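testing teh design pipeline on a random one, pls ignore if ur not involved
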């Protein structure tokens, strides 16, 4: 699935969601998410997250089903704002 990672994640009013004063883009969120460790994680899982984080530096990416699953599973492992979670969930479902 092709995603423009420069697009902002929108809040409930349809305006860019902000983390402090910074507008959160899908790319920024995915990179930050892939850098978040979970309590029990194998070396293989860490490498997959590292590789996906590097991939998400680009402006546009083509995410595989496995990469989208990794993003979803990682969001399930840590506290994620429900608005951000919902936007990403619906983005993946719309494709």
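output:
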């Amino acid at each position: 699935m092709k995603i423009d990672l420069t697009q902002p994640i929108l809040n409930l009013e349809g305006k860019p969601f902000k983390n402090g004063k910074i507008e959160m883009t899908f790319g920024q969120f995915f990179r930050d998410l892939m850098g978040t460790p979970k309590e029990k994680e194998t070396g293989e899982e860490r490498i997959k997250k590292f590789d996906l984080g590097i991939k998400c530096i680009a402006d546009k990416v083509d995410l595989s089903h496995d990469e989208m699953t990794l993003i979803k599973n990682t969001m399930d492992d840590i506290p994620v704002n429900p608005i951000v979670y919902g936007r990403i969930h619906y983005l993946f479902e719309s494709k």
